[in-house]
User: What shape does this take?
Amino acid sequence: MENELFEILRYGIFAGSISLILIGLYAALTKRSLLKIIIGLSIVDGGIHLLLITIGYVKNGTAPIFSPGYEDAAAIMVDPVPQALVLTAIVIGFAVTAVALSLIIRLYRHHHTLEIDEIKNLKW
Amino acid sequence: MKKVIVLLLLAVTGYYLVISFMDLGKYGPVVETGVKDFYLEKTVSELHVANTITSIIVSFRGFDTLGEVTVLFLAATALGGILYKRRHDVGGRSVLFPSSSIVKSGSKLLFPAIILLGAYVFIHGHLSPGGGFQGGAIIATGFLLMLLAYDNFSVSHNVLSFIESFAGIFFVLFGLAGMMMGGTFLENFMPVGKLNDLFSGGIIPIIYILVGLKVAAELTGLIYTVLHEKEN
Assistant: This one.
């Protein structure tokens, strides 16, 4: 029973993070507003982070922190490597979003619109 | 038509993502490279740091974190450059309506508590969940609250860039000090102390505090720049 529940949860998280990635890609590819495209890319970011963290999970594992009472629990700790990498990825994702938003502010100042259809220089 | 093409593309992508990830980790750990065991063992035996993620970020991959902080710094600089304004344009920011006195006194009450929580999170980064990046982000949210509640609240850019450069320079100096002591860049040259003590882990807590200050200053500067962007 406990095993089945664990399996369902695990598949649920995998399915959830993959659908987050797909939803974000859909928004980034079809939406015409620059703000919505940035939001889509942030959703893709979130999905990828969730997926990476889930891959590092060990069944019945605890956080990889040797707090008092858990000094000898190294065998049941989850993989710390994806967590450290995701911490890096979050910071870089934040920096990318900030720069993208500032470029959007600049574009808005110049064109007074955020719709990419109306900004002629962005047509392809 | 375009939406159909996009949906087809996404269906193919989704199918490959699902078949490549669904069975991962089903029969125990995904990849048995020994990296996990190496980090978990060395964290306790050599560095005496409780939080393995902190030890990876600051010690094992410390050089990478220096690069990461540099990326954040570059983003803040790029934002300032892109949103550059001549000095006489800089004024108060335009607000639709002033915030009520409840919001004002509430933020004044919460502000010191948020700063304290942020400082706690990055000072205890080697003992408990959290660390420099998280604590810095918490402190920046405190400043965001004050900036939203008071339209004349201002942060001195000189102080922010001083904190930022101070933290960045000392990060590099601590790295170079490790080299002077006969090791590698960011070698842990200070006594590591006892596991789960506040003063343990050698240079790891010091570097994480510097990272926390740097991230807090950078994010506050970033928020300030964007908030004072006037529509014209």
The CA atoms of residues 109 and 181 of chain B lie 46 Å apart. Chain B touches chain A through 56 residues (CB under 8 Å).
